[in-house]
Amino acid sequence: MKKVLTLPLLIIISCFIAGIYGIIHDQITYSISPEYYTKNKFIQFGLDEFLIPQGNERILVAAVGWMATWWMGLILGTILSLIAFIHKTWKQMFRITIKAILLNLLITLLFGVLGYLYALAFMSYESNDLAFWNVPNETVDITNYLRVGCIHNFGYLGGIIGLFVAIVYTIRSKR
């Protein structure tokens, strides 16, 4: 019974961790390219119509960060928590799942850094097909816009790869 009650707790914790990660991640990438948010993400998430004083965009950036990632925590937390039922006690289930979630987070973070390094080396206005990236016409700093897009793509890839690594960790922890 305690294992069943542990499941929703782990999912909520996973959503919270993912959402906080998204907020911090987006605050950092906003510093690289505000246009990526003002001309893309705010519109994508329906936040472009919010009237906020100029200079307070970081509030909307935090909202985008949360909305873009909490659901990954829902998916990852659910999968990892269900797999963790293989463990004998709710304490083992809880401890191993938290470690798996943090492992997934670390891998996602590392992929984001790799995305940034890749973007620095290969992403520029001159070296990319802008039609592939769907850059708005009025974008001024196209290079940094592309770089933030690359960081985001690498981050999602890291989340998926991190899930598989976390699943393997969870299963191997049974031994």
Please tag this protein with its features.
about 180 residues, mainly alpha, 6 helices, about 80% helix, elongated
Quickly describe the structure.
By secondary structure, the protein is an all-alpha fold. The chain has helices at residues 2-32, 34-44, 57-83, 90-122, 130-133, 142-172. The chain contains six helices and no strands.
Structure description:
The protein is elongated. It contains 6 helices and no strands. The longest helix has 33 residues, at 90-122. The chain has 175 residues and is mainly α. Helices cover 78% and strands 0% of the residues. It has helices at 2-32, 34-44, 57-83, 90-122, 130-133, 142-172. Helix 2 (34-44) packs across helix 3 (57-83). The two termini are 23 Å apart. The chain has one domain.
Order of helices and strands: HHHHHH
Work out the count of structural domains.
Answer: 1
**How large is the radius of gyration?**
18 Å
Strand residue percentage: under 5%
What does the average pLDDT come to? 91
What is the share of helical residues?
A: over 70%
Topology record:
Elements: H1 2-32, H2 34-44, H3 57-83, H4 90-122, H5 130-133, H6 142-172
